[in-house]
Amino acid sequence: MAQKDSDILQLRVPQELKRKLAMDAAKNGVTIRSLILNALVSAGYDVPEEEIRDKRKVR
Question: If you placed Cys at 45, which of 2, 21, 25, 40 could pair as Cys (CB 3.0 to 4.6 Å)?
């Protein structure tokens, strides 16, 4: 999906949930974004694979 086809979604979550998401993401070597997108795929949503992959720059 190209940047122009993307949109921003912000939501408030409890601090403890965010900490757990961050810990799980770090444990699996992925971003929180990737973790959430994979959860959406598991829930039956169609998310293109290129959107799920880690987009952080490699150092």
Answer: 40
